[in-house]
Write a structure and sequence with these properties.
By secondary structure, the chain is α/β, with parallel strands linked by helices. The chain contains eleven helices and six strands.
Length: 291
């Protein structure tokens, strides 16, 4: 695949933990071979999810949040209490958006909004930074050479989004003076045709780690067990909806962004963007293809 060294701006490392209905600290201890107090070492964990990978979607997005182990631990404890109160297993943005679907069947608009607001308040308290990137499939098809081996080298539209998020999070960790590392965790879900397999993505992270040993990858996890992945679901979904509705959907420029997305981008809290054709052409050029 595409040489990761080409994308290493100031890139930085990682180790992350999350509380799941495991314990965040237990998970962190497992990654590092022993339990280590948080105090002497600041460890950042980034949880990332995808949206728009299904057949026929106009845009694909990767996005998520980054915070310390201690912050994610607090978030997970508090959010599990909220889930138990309302009797659902997880926050699922798509199901919540469409009334009467899944575990949210029969919920009123008021109940759904209140649930979302409580969820978002806990995310804001825990995670000081979010990154999300989207690519329109039409742009990818127009710019990236139709050559199977080259596309495997560059990566799918999804992998290009994931790469951008990882870089943003590594850069931000350096900007705030945390160079002890970032551990990345992804949701465990079936990968549709045209998206790299879990094995390919794991190998991609391993190759990146060989270039910069501070990057860690903790694998794929179920968001019902690793609760911060539910926050990642929210980030990816919100940017996808915004891009579909306003950027790709031809909505009037005067239309206000979704309030839930506005809350994410307030105070530079989120780097959310669409990688346009110029951005894709730059990736193609670096990978040695003709744009």
């Amino acid at each position: 695949m595409f040489p990761v060294s080409e994308f290493l701006a100031p890139v930085f490392p990682g180790s992350v933990g999350c509380r799941t209905r495991l314990q965040v600290r237990e998970l962190a201890g497992g990654l590092h071979g022993r339990y280590a107090p948080v105090a002497p070492l600041v460890m950042l964990y980034a949880y990332l999810d995808e949206s728009g990978t299904h057949t026929g979607a106009p845009v694909v997005v990767a996005g998520g949040f980054m915070a310390t182990v201690a912050a994610w631990d607090e978030f997970s404890r508090a959010w599990e209490v909220q889930l138990r109160k309302v009797g659902v297993s997880s926050y699922h943005a798509t199901d919540l958006e469409h009334p009467g679907y899944g575990e949210f069947s029969g919920w009123t608009a008021k109940k759904r909004l209140g649930f979302q607001r409580r969820f978002f308040a806990l995310i804001r308290r825990a995670a000081p930074y979010s990154a999300a990137c989207g690519i329109a499939f039409a742009d990818y098809e127009a710019v990236v050479p139709v050559d199977r081996e080259f596309r495997r080298t560059l990566g799918s539209a999804y992998l290009c989004c994931l790469r951008a998020c990882v870089l943003k999070m590594l850069e931000r960790s350096h900007e705030v003076g945390v160079d002890d590392g970032v551990t990345f965790m992804l949701e465990d879900r079936p990968k549709p045709p045209g998206i790299e397999s879990k094995g390919d993505i794991t190998e991609w992270f391993e190759r990146w780690k060989r270039v910069d040993s501070r990057v860690q990858f903790a694998g794929f996890w179920n968001k019902r067990r690793v609760l911060p992945l539910q926050a990642a679901d929210f980030a990816a979904f919100e940017l996808k909806k915004e891009l579909q509705n306003r950027v790709l959907g031809g909505a009037p420029a005067a239309r206000d962004p979704r309030k839930s997305l506005l809350a994410l981008v307030t105070n530079d809290w989120m780097d959310g963007f669409l990688m346009d054709r110029d951005g894709l052409a730059g990736l193609v050029a670096r990978a040695g293809g003709a744009s």
